[in-house]
Design a protein that fits this description.
GO terms for molecular function: NADH dehydrogenase activity; oxidoreductase activity, acting on NAD(P)H, quinone or similar compound as acceptor; quinone binding. This protein has 360 residues and is an all-alpha fold. The chain is built from 15 helices and no strands.
Length: 360
């Protein structure tokens, strides 16, 4: 169907400029809009879901005034923030002060270019898709640093230093987790990584969920999940926004939509790391059991359900654990997670050279 729409648009004109440049560019822009429009809705309504789920866990109601079940609350919040005055500190660097929020949210949205939603449903099906995502998301730390420095505030600068050190530390652990998965799948393409999880003894028996990477790579899966929480500066790793210490971290001087964009970037990153966890460890769009009933459900539905469960785990963690000290966070990343991932990388490599290799 998608190819038919593309071919139909291509044949609207026989002019060379239309077939070689005009329609291909328009087609790419259309695909970007189709991808980003639902994503921005998901990001907005993740704030509603977080408040409702936290309310349930804390035996209270959560947002329930604006619209049925409070479903119009994100729209009301957006309108409120859009109409607020944008205040820039007198001594701030104007250009960099405005660039900070853009640099924070841009990578969280641009990385979706290589995320597949089905076997052939992806904006850019590049062979090194995982590498593209790593390269794009690594830029996000610059938005934090720029925002903290350009604000010309000691509180903002200290928050930026904390955030950048934390993000870089846990990016290393996440990178090693990716490396283990790439080694077992033999590919950097996310579609092929999902396909590799459909093979094995358990999959031949119809128990697909036992052939997914979460089981043979359980320690790596746990390291990735915890590192993802720290990478997105979520509770209990949100010392960047430690209210009793440095107010709101690197975004303390921002107001209105500038402040909102940083939060949108955080929630967009939550969706991104959650769908990556599903693609690499939880079988992506594959059904958990190979049966007629489960196979009748479209793959994108399974992908969405799994991603929602993983992103809800972020909220569950927030409602459960107290905030860690900064030295505990850095110790966990450098002295525990990085050695664990390195050791497991060597163990997996050794097992893959034996007859007990479960990824054959």
């Amino acid at each position: 169907m998608i190819d038919a729409i593309y071919q139909g648009g291509l044949h609207l004109s026989t002019a060379a400029w239309w077939t070689q440049a005009g329609w291909p560019v328009i087609w790419i822009l259309l695909k970007i809009v189709v991808l980003l429009a639902p994503l921005m809705l998901l990001v907005a309504y993740l704030t509603w879901w977080e408040r409702r789920l936290l309310g349930f866990m804390q035996v209270r109601l959560g947002p329930n005034r604006v619209g049925p079940f409070g479903l119009l609350q994100p729209i009301a919040d957006a309108l409120k923030l859009l109409t607020k005055e944008l205040i820039r500190p007198t001594a701030a660097n104007g250009g960099l002060f405005r660039l900070g929020p853009i640099m924070a949210i841009m990578p969280a949205l641009a990385a979706w270019v290589a995320i597949p939603f089905g076997p052939d449903v992806v904006l850019a099906n590049v062979n090194a898709g995982l590498l593209v995502i790593l390269a794009i998301t690594s830029i996000e730390v610059y938005g934090v640093i720029i925002a903290g420095w350009a604000s010309n505030s000691k509180y903002a600068f200290l928050g930026a230093l904390r955030a950048s050190a934390q993000m870089v530390s846990y990016e290393i652990a996440i990178g090693f987790c990716f490396l283990v998965v790439v080694m077992t799948a033999g590919s950097l393409n996310l579609s092929e990584i999902v396909a590799s999880q459909s093979r094995g003894v358990a999959a031949d028996m119809g128990l697909n969920f036992l052939s997914w990477n979460w089981l043979p790579l359980l320690p790596i899966f746990m390291v990735y999940l915890i590192s993802a929480v720290a990478e997105t500066n979520r509770h209990p790793f949100d010392v960047v926004e430690g209210e009793a210490e440095i107010v709101a971290g690197h975004m303390v001087e921002y107001s209105g939509m500038g402040f909102a964009i940083f939060f949108l970037a955080e929630y967009a990153s939550m969706w991104l790391v959650s769908i990556l966890a599903v693609l690499m460890f939880l079988g992506g769009w594959l059904p958990p059991i190979d049966s007629a009933v489960f196979n009748a459900i479209p793959g994108w539905v399974w992908l969405g359900l799994k991603t929602t469960v993983v992103v809800s785990m972020f909220i569950w963690i927030r409602a459960t654990f107290p905030r860690f000290r900064y030295d505990q966070i850095m110790r966990l990343g450098w002295k525990i997670f990085i050695p664990v991932t390195l050791i497991w990388l060597l163990l997996v490599g050794a097992v893959m050279q034996t007859s007990w290799n479960p990824w054959k």
